[in-house]
């Protein structure tokens, strides 16, 4: 069955960096676009970034542009989110999610359980 | 950028009742790119509806989606105890390329 498992979260000081990973299994990872979505404590969902199935196209939310980088390693069936210059407002649970369609970003049919990032001094 | 406004913010109903949740985009969106999710505390969101009206795999038929343009609805025909959760609508826009979520509707037991 499809499984997405995030890792890499933790407590980090403002201004520092963190790299999140999302290990995928149960499907052919290289044929699906993948997204990162976050949720601040007690708040709603906020889309952060998408990467196309072939890694050639990436889109970012304004809040991620210039600080976050989405990437993938199909040989490891793993999605990444490199987060730099972290701020307190980046504190959230970060979910990876699969997009079932190869075209423009669409919807999310499978989600991981999320990894918590806390930005605090 | 398209803003999705969900209403009501909180809906208090009893098991067995019918729930009607609204999602209104700030400008017209394609029905092909409107989805609904359910999220329970401590869990990841779960896809319920995509393409405005297509049920995802394994979703009971008491859940249905409808609407077009600037007015979309998620209906739960007869509430079961496990349906009390937060519900989000979501759409994709092309100019600029963005995915947007509504702020959520909390469905609570009355």
Describe the structure in your own words.
The complex is a heterodimer of chains A (121) and B (110). With 121 residues, chain A is mostly beta strands. Chain A is built from no helices and eleven strands. In chain A, strands 2, 4, 5, 6, 9, 10 and 11 form a seven-stranded mixed beta sheet that branches. In chain A, strand 5 and strand 6 form a beta hairpin. The model of chain A has no long low-confidence stretch (mean pLDDT 96). By secondary structure, chain B is mainly β. The chains are: A mainly beta (121), B mainly beta (110). Chains A and B meet through strand 5 and strand 10 of A and strand 4, strand 5, strand 9 and strand 10 of B.
Number of strands of chain B: 11
Question: Main sheet of chain A, how many strands, which sense, barrel?
Answer: 7 strands, mixed
Shape of chain A: globular
Largest interface: A-B, 21 and 25 residues
Quick check: average pLDDT of chain A? 96
What is the radius of gyration of chain B computed over CA atoms, rounded to a whole number of angstroms?
Answer: 13 Å
**Tally of alpha and pi helices of chain A:** 0
Spatial gap, N to C terminus of chain A:
40 Å
User: Roughly what is the average pLDDT of chain B, rounded to an integer?
Assistant: 95
Class inferred from helices and paired strands of chain A:
mainly beta
Shape of chain B: globular
Please outline the helices and strands.
The complex is a heterodimer of chains A (121) and B (110).
Chain A: E1 3-7, E2 10-12, E3 18-25, E4 34-39, E5 45-51, E6 58-60, E7 68-73, E8 78-83, E9 92-98, E10 110-111, E11 115-119
Chain B: E1 4-7, E2 10-13, E3 19-25, E4 34-39, E5 46-50, E6 54-55, E7 63-68, E8 71-76, E9 86-94, E10 97-101, E11 105-109
Parallel strand pairs in B: 2-11
Antiparallel strand pairs in B: 1-3, 3-8, 4-5, 4-9, 5-6, 7-8, 9-10, 9-11
């Amino acid at each position: 069955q499809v499984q997405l498992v995030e890792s890499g979260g933790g407590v980090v000081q403002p201004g520092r960096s963190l790299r999140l990973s999302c290990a995928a299994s149960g499907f052919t990872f290289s044929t699906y676009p993948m997204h990162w979505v976050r949720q601040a404590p007690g708040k709603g969902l906020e889309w952060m970034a998408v990467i196309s199935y072939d890694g050639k196209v990436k889109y970012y939310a304004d809040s991620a542009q210039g600080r976050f980088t989405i990437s993938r390693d199909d040989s490891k069936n793993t999605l990444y989110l490199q987060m730099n210059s972290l701020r307190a407002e980046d504190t959230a649970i970060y979910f990876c999610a699969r997009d079932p369609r190869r075209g423009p970003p669409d919807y999310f049919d499978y989600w991981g359980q999320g990894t918590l990032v806390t930005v605090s001094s | 950028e398209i803003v999705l406004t969900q209403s009501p913010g909180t809906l208090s109903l009893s098991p067995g009742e019918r729930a009607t949740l609204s999602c209104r985009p700030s400008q017209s969106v394609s029905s092909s790119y409107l989805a609904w999710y359910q999220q329970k505390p401590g869990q990841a969101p779960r896809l319920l509806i995509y393409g405005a009206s297509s049920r995802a795999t394994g979703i009971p038929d008491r859940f249905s989606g409808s609407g077009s343009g600037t007015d979309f609805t998620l209906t739960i025909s007869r509430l079961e105890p496990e349906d009390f959760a937060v519900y989000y609508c979501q759409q994709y826009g092309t100019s600029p390329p963005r995915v947007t979520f509504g702020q959520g509707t909390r469905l609570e037991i009355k």
